# Entry
Amino acid sequence: MSTTVENVACPFCGCLCDDIIVETEGTKILKVKLACSSGQGIFMDYDPRPRRPLVHGSEVEWSEAVAEAARILSAADSPLIYGLSSSASEAQRKAVALADKIGAVIDSTSSVCHGPTGLAMQAVGEPTCTLGEVRDRADLVVFWGCNPDASHLRHFPRFSLTAKGTLTPNGRSDRTMYVIDVRPTGSSKKADHFLQIEVGSDYEVLTTLRLLVRGGEPSSDVVGGVPVAELKELAERMKSCRYGVAFMGMGLTMAPARQLNVAELFTLVAELNDHAKFSVIPMRGHGNVTGADQVLSWTTGYPFAVSFARGYPQFMPGEFTAVDMLARKAADAAVIIASDPGAHFPAAAAAHLERIPTIVFDHGPSVVAAKADVLFPTAAYGVDAGGTAYRMDNVPIPLTQVIETDRPTDEEILDRIIEAVD
Amino acid sequence: MSDRLTLITGRTRKQAIGMHKGKASAEYLEATALVEMNPDDMTRLDVSEGGHVLLRTDDGEVELTARAGTVPAGLVFVPMGTSANKLIGTETLGTGMPCFKGLQVDVTPLAGEEVSP
Amino acid sequence: MLGIIGGRVYDPQNDKAGEIGDIWVKDGRIVPAAEVDREKAEIIDAAGLVVMAGGVDIHAHIVGGEVNAGRKLRPEDHRGKERAHSGSLRAGAGGTVPSTYATGQLYSELGYTTVMQASTAPLMARHTHEELEDTPNVDNGAFMVMGNNHIVMQSIADKQFDRARDYVAWLLQATRGYAIKLVNPGGVENWKWGRNVAELDDEVIGYGVTPRQIMETLATIADDLGLPHAAHIHGINLGRHTSARTSIETIKALDGHRAHLCHLQFLSYGSGKGHVHKSEAVAVAEAVNASPKLTVDVGQVVFGRATTMTCDGPLQHTLHNTAGGRWMNDDVEGESGGGIVPIEYKPGNPINATMWLTGLELFLLIDDPWKVFLTTDHPNAGTFSNYPQIIRLLMDRGYREEMIATLHPRARKGALLAELDREYSLGDIAVITRSGPARALGLKDKGHLGVGADADIAVYEERDDKEAMFARPRYVFKAGELVARDGAVLKQVAGRTYSVAPDYDPSIEDDLRAHFKAAYTVSYDNYAMLSGDGARIETVACG
# Structure
């Protein structure tokens, strides 16, 4: 007998599409409808078989693994807790409680994703909106340094391009779409206007747009490889639209100017509100990376890069961010929750994880899980565990337990470690 | 012959799909151990479609399979993942974010290493 | 079991104004003396001390999306104000927007035991509840923002009052909300077009309804559903020189209904000379005094750092353009909006000084303390940690004069406050900080020390300096447990969240399912919190 679960939220990316239909039979997932190819994998490639935890590669009882994790953390002087982005907020809250108790540094995948976006927000603020406002109102959408066509596959149809809303009954034809990027992408092919700018020129182009919005005249005819006339046209569209929305991604945060790029875009958007209604939405990547920012902010006051080493929360990107902690060999033990810095960190930072004891929570294989000193093969939130996640626009979405397995959750294991640790 | 180009890394659909299969899977490796180049750069550097190239930055080097793509001349694109990370340094300029996009990279074709796709 | 013996009890609801008395506690509640075995009870000698119910804050922004954005926005605000991990006490960040654990701890240290979250967009309700779970030591509840809600406005436009009422009842249940909140009704919807409303009869774009209709409808619904708390209203024109006039018009429009007007100080200005607003506290207080079913809280400005955050998007944009600096805005589909601007109030700034005067004038000109409650609209006009200073200002005319002397001359000149010699008594303070807000909220077990009340108790040492007295309670009990002593928190206990469950016609659910498909990006089933998640949530009866 198969069961059909409707309105399931897909925990893969920051879109958290919550209209997915999943057909299951026992612990088997038979079919997934409406999910994109990335989301399909979350469900269809999931191996629901319960696995025992590993300590130094050997299977042990859960209690033994918890005791070993507690022993490692009790012995550590400078433990790092990292990841969180594919876990539920319930587990993220426990991770902060653990960091608080043991005086750890805690950081999320935000620091290598939209960390600079957070720094820009702290510098200039952020005029934003929920994705429903985009669907209902936006007649001008600008995608800057992001490629939803590869990263957020249902963003266009559900929210931002072909989606039909109250003021956009015709969907695509009611919107003008700009893509600004350094290379053509799947997204730029869909755009009405693609401004291909030179690598590293984002800041200059953004500043020029601010100048044009204010009625100024640039001193050159071409900026960032783009004719100023085209930027003028964009500035005019931005000033005269009904509701404009800029989406931004790693093209701004991972480039050398990082948060300065983002702050310039946020400032442009803020200034546009003197002429038209305009918002900006960062394209948050992992399913609940937004939740990690939220949980850390409400428990510590800061969104990422938090140290409890002095007994109270301190915030310092560049010090308490995971890449820096590892590159400087400042961490002497690590708890990695639902992320894979082994695959996504610069090689020299990832290498330090092999020198220190690591406690890894992951529902499937990963680079960091393969080398863990203690591995907890926990349940996957949104597949065999329920919880709460935050969409890229900060809307909380419940994650459904679509199959029941014997796997414990991150939250349960973290709770046991908190109990066991000195 | 080698040349200094600009490297950007980023997400691709295939990289995401491969990730679910596991990072040791053939799908993942195939999706991430490649470099997308501008056809003119390939011709100039004598790199053939599917040929192997060596990418080297100040922080490391990696061998990748070359594919002709839509990137503009002077730019190469490598999907995010374990291969790309060998080229990325740990300097974050006080932000926590390494520079994953816009690095200088030396691209050298590896002779006689042509592999079929 | 616990006995607090021989203290001077200020319990206005039970007509105690400083009489010597004993308070007995068992199982978290106040009980008759006969029910307590004195041999086994812990006895607190309260001789010479002042005993009051725990404080009740009727309007503070302590949790949820907007508050959390404020925390994230201001790392500089937390530094130097951190709270270290100690025993079972969680570490946290202080400042104008403290972290959740710190918020609960700080309220305990002030003798407060109940706090209502002043505004939550229903779409973000789950977030608010997650944070409330992490906010210890205070019972709480969340007001759900509805004054720019599309279903409400469409129902009014279609003259379908029953639909609006059933929807509101459903929404309060679905979000585990406690009360109906309105913020700049109609103005926030218009802000999504870059506009605002300025008059009660201005039109809301796309709906043809008016702020007046929205307020009347929601106030009527609160009455019809028998909600324990009236419609909680942040009116139109906040901060503008037309606000006193429209506040008075609002009070007239709501005549006959229960209503609570929040942070009225921000809505009691008229045109002064030059570009400086002037206080219209006299006219506004007169209207309040004449309306028997109305309550208000003040939103008193406190000089120093603050973080303004409201669902009033257009107001925050204006403030950003005035004050400069960082600006957050968040338009929420179908429901609401909001913004954040950090600010500092200075006595030497004539506008800030006028705001400060206006608030205190309202306190002193509204005759009945049961109608006016102490708030700073935390963290908008100041933080809740500033309540003791405001208490001193109300109780101590000499201190008021000292403060008035520091104000910008333009604001000081001719200020009515200098002429008001009313001083609040300790009994009056007990009303405006406990009994009054608890009664207005319909929380029958809060705000008093009668038998059956929750054993939320604050014990103070009486001092001439009332700020020092209220800043450092000798003992604070939450449900009978000692949570703070000598102004320092001792332990964390879980708070309860109050919600309401008014009846509605279940046929509204099909209607809403269809609406959600068309108008929301979240499915109906994932929006509503109707199942699960209940242990901490306590339903307060309607009726």
